[in-house]
Amino acid sequence: MFVDNFENQSKEKSESIKKRWLETATKFLKGKPYQDLEWEFSEDISIEPYYTKDEENHSDLSYLQILQNNQLALNEPVSQPRFWYNQPFIKLHSLEKEELEKINKEVRQVLMSGAEGVCFDLKSIELADIDKKKIEYLLFEVALPYCAVSFQVDIENENELQSFLEKYIDYVKERGFEIHLLTGGVLYQNSSKKNNQFSTTFLESVSQTNTAFRSITLQLNNSKDEAQNIADILFEVKKLVENSNKNILQNIQFVVEATDSFFITIAKIRALNWLLIQMYDLYQVDTKPYIHSITSQGTDEKSLEDENWNLIRNTTQAFSCILGGTNALSVVSHQNQENTKSKAWANRIARNVSVMLREESFVDATADPISGSYYCEQMTDKLIASAWKKFQEMIN
Known about the structure:
By secondary structure, the chain is an alpha/beta fold.
């Protein structure tokens, strides 16, 4: 009886609050229709400005609970309910021994200062010029099974990528590390185009490596039709499995570039994650989707005039990625200055964004901080439904 009364009172209170909110909103709209407050956050998908618990129950969003359960399963080895790899970018300018040793010193300093990994920017380096000796200089005294190491590269073809992977795996074996304990991966641009060029032989060889090191990139596009962007990723996953086998799923990482739209970033990561979990379950593989998020720099006039705009942008974008449920996060340095001291300071701030969100905002204390946010749950639900519909249309 007490529970029934409590639920009835809560429902009445919720309706009363929304009624008052609508009255206030109508007053401020000055005759404009309430629908003007609706936001079309993706093509043909709109969200209302206000939701209550009763409206959420009406939609039955309990199925999103799987996002929380998945997060807990992923973080079983660590103490906190939510965990992500803090992988700051470190740019490599050359393959000279002095440069490699300098970068190695920076890597060890980063790993001792709160980061759980690094992401090497090798876009200006010819992959073919990298050999095991250079990898040894670069990763000297780095315990690879205990940190995530990723490489951002520019590849021309699968032969370049395969050669690099073989050298890296050979180095790992020579050091006596267990391959299945490796984490991180290879990130490259134009992933859809590159993946279409990969041969079945190459993909099958990748799928046979018993490691969590993800050498296949699938990058989520940023366009107005967020649902179509997610559907495209699902379709790419399907093609990769068809061109090799289901074991390739353990070698894929999904790269998401954050935007200034805080709620869209949260919703699209959550929607992508949920749909991928369903696909992985259908393929009956014992692995979970792995999402690597990267912040973006603004090139607008305000950002160029005042570097602090990008500093704030980094923090809010990183926050939205973590709330969305990313597995790894790389924060781009907030300034592009040639001054060595200034760059070192900016890199330190970028590295510490994750640390501050974890240690001072306690974002890692809850498996799914967005659970129960009626607004974000509705956005996620609508995005999932639309993306799945578009994916079905693509495969049919």
